[in-house]
Amino acid sequence: MADAERAFAEQSLTREQGRHPRMRLSQVQMRLGSRFFSVWWLLPGLLMLAVASVAAGKVFIATGAGQSLIHGHPCVPHTPRVSPGVQWWVVVTHVANFFFMVMIIRAGWQILADHPRLYAKVHCTPDREVLRFRGPVPKDRVWTAKDDAVTLSPLFGMPGGRHTIGVARHWHFIFDILFVVNGIAYVVLLFATGRYLKLVPTELSILPDAGSCIVQYSALHLPAAPGGYVRFDAIQQLSYFGVVFLLGPLAILSGLAMSPALDNRFQWYQRIFGNRQAARTLHFLIMCAFLLFYAVHMTMVAATGFADNLDSIALGSRGHDLNGVALLFVALGVTIAFNVWAVRFSWTHTRVLQRVSNATVGRLMDLLFDHYAPRAEYREQDISPFFWPNGLVPTSDEWTGLRDREFRDYRLRVHGLVEHPVELSLRQLRELAHQDQITMHNCIQGWSAIGRWSGVPFTKLIELVRPQPEARWVMFYSYGEGGEGGQYYDSHTVDDLRHPQSLLAYEMNGEPLPLLHGAPLRLRVENQLGFKHVKWIKEIEFVRHFSERGGGEGGYNEDHEFYGYRDEI
Ligand SMILES: Nc1nc2c(c(=O)[nH]1)N[C@H]1C(S)=C(S)[C@@H](COP(=O)(O)O)O[C@H]1N2
Ligand SMILES: [Mo]
C-alpha cells in the first residue's frame, strides 16, 4: 500500500465534529393525546400494578378456584425430560448470542441517538412523536435532522462520545449477521437433536399450566420443583419459545422494514407492521422486551439458587461447585473487554471498520437488494405534511448569484466518460421530460417522509450523453458544502440510475424545488438512503469507479462520516 493510501486508510473519527448535547434520561417523554409526559411517571404506575397483582395473586390462591387451578395444573409440567444435561452447543450459542446482543443493542442506541424520536404514523411530524429522547423541535429557525441528533455516553452508545451513525451502523450490521448465523445454527441444532421439545409447546395444557405459574409467582410462591429447577416451568417454556421464535424473527423483520430498497419496491412489506415508522418503533420496543427478558431471566436464576442454576445452565451438572458462576464471569469479562476495545477501535481505526463493513455487510446488501428496482408509488393523500430538511444550504457567490436570478443562468454540466457531454439549462431539462412520482424518502438517521417529485428520468440523460462502456459509476457534485467543509458529493452505479424512479428532480410537491430541499436540481434514487440524494446539483460526471474522485470512499458522508458506499438498508 502506498503511504498516502495507508494514511487515508487509517483516518479516524474526530471529536471536534459531530458533538451534540448529551442525551438526558430525565428528558425522555411520551405522548398521550396532545401532551408529553416524562416516562418516569410510568414507574409509580408499574409499582402500583406490581403491588395490585401480588394482592390479587394472594387473594386468588386462597380461594377454591385458585387451589383447584394450582393442584389441577402444575406450573412445572410432568412431561418427560428430553434428555438430561446440557449440550455444548447450547452453551456456545447462548454465550455467543449474549455477546452479539450487547453489541447490537449498544450500536442500536447509538443509531437511535441520531434521530431521537419515535413515531406511530408513517410521517415524522414534530410534536407527533410517541416517544422522544430530547425536547421539542425548535420552530423559530431552520432545524435540520442533523441538528437534532444527541450524544450518548460511551457507557451506552457504541461508540458514544459524539453522534456517529456511520460507525454505529457498521457495528450493528456486522453483529446482526453474526446474530442471524448463530440463531440459525441454534434452531437447526434444536430440531436436529429433538431438544425443540423443551421449547416448543406441543400441548394446549401449557396454557392453564402457565396460568397456574402466573398465580403462584404473583402470590410470591415459588412453585414446587422437586430435585431442583432442572425442568422448565410453563412460563419459562413459553417465554423462551417467545424469545427464540417470535422476538428474534420480529427484530430481524422489523429491522429490514426500514430499508428504502424493500419499502420502495414492495409496499406490502412495511404494511405488515403498519408502516415504516411503526416498524422502527416496534424495533425499539423489541429491544425493550429483550432487556426485560434478560432482567427477569437473571432475577429468576438468582432467586432460585444462583450457583446451582448457573451450573446446570452452563455445564448441565449440579456439582454444587462454582463452575457455572466462573463461566458467567468469564463471559461477562470477555464481553466487557471486547466492548472497551471496540469503542477504542471505532476512534482509532474507523476507516478499517468501514472497509470491513463494506466488504461484508455491503457485499451482502448488494447481493440481496441489487435486483430490486424501486417502483412503489404512494397516493396524493399519503404525502407527508412535514419533510425534515438536512444539509447546509449553499452560501457560495456562484449559487447565491444563480438563486437571485431564479436560476435562469443555471447550466447543468454532464461530462466524463460520455460520447456527448452537454450543458443543460433548467428549461432544456424540463423540455427533455417530465415524470411525476410520489415516493418515500428514508434518511439514514431513521426519519422518513413521502413526497411528490417531478423531473427528468435519469435514463433520458443517459440516452442523451451516451456513456462509454467503461463508465460504471456516476458522480454528483453539489454547490453545497458538507458539515466539515468541502464540496458535498456522492456517487451511484449507472445500473441504479437506470431504475424507472431515478430522477433529476426540479419540483417538489408540485412547486419548483424549494431552496432548502435542493434548488434548482436534486437527485432521487429511491432504492438508496437519503444521503445519496445529492441536493443543489452543480455537475454530473461519469467515471469508471467512485474511488477515483473525492476522498475515494464514494461520497462526502462516506469520506467524512464513514458511511457505507451503497446503503439499501
Ligand atoms: N448537497 C447536499 N445534499 C444532500 C445533503 C447535504 O448535506 N448536502 N444531505 C442529504 C441527506 S442526509 C438527506 S436525508 C437528504 C435530505 O433531503 P431533504 O432536505 O429534501 O429532506 O438530502 C441529502 N442530500
Ligand atoms: Mo439523511
Unique ligands: the ligand Nc1nc2c(c(=O)[nH]1)N[C@H]1C(S)=C(S)[C@@H](COP(=O)(O)O)O[C@H]1N2, molybdenum atom
Overall tally of domains: 2
Tally of separate helices? 18
Specify the structural class: alpha+beta
- Strand order of the main beta sheet, please? 6-5-14-9-10
CATH hierarchy, class of the largest domain:
Mainly Alpha
Membrane topology: Multi-pass membrane protein
Keywords: Cell membrane, Membrane, Transmembrane, Transmembrane helix
Domain Cytochrome b561 bacterial/Ni-hydrogenase: 87-307
GO cellular component, one term: plasma membrane
Quick structural gist:
One of its GO terms (molecular function) is electron transfer activity. Keywords: Cell membrane, Membrane, Transmembrane, Transmembrane helix. The protein is α+β, with helices and mostly antiparallel strands and 569 residues long.
Summarize the topology:
Blueprint: H1 3-9, E1 29-32, E2 35-38, H2 42-62, H3 64-72, H4 88-113, E3 117-118, E4 131-132, H5 165-192, H6 206-218, H7 234-256, H8 260-263, H9 267-271, H10 276-303, H11 306-314, H12 323-348, H13 350-369, H14 397-404, E5 412-416, E6 422-424, H15 426-432, E7 435-442, E8 448-457, H16 458-465, E9 473-481, E10 487-493, H17 494-497, E11 503-508, E12 511-512, E13 522-524, E14 537-543, H18 556-560
Parallel strand pairs: 5-14
Antiparallel strand pairs: 1-2, 1-4, 3-4, 5-6, 7-8, 8-11, 9-10, 9-14, 11-12, 11-13
Helix pairs in contact: 2-6, 4-5, 4-12, 5-13, 7-10, 11-12
Bound molecules: ligand MTE and molybdenum atom.
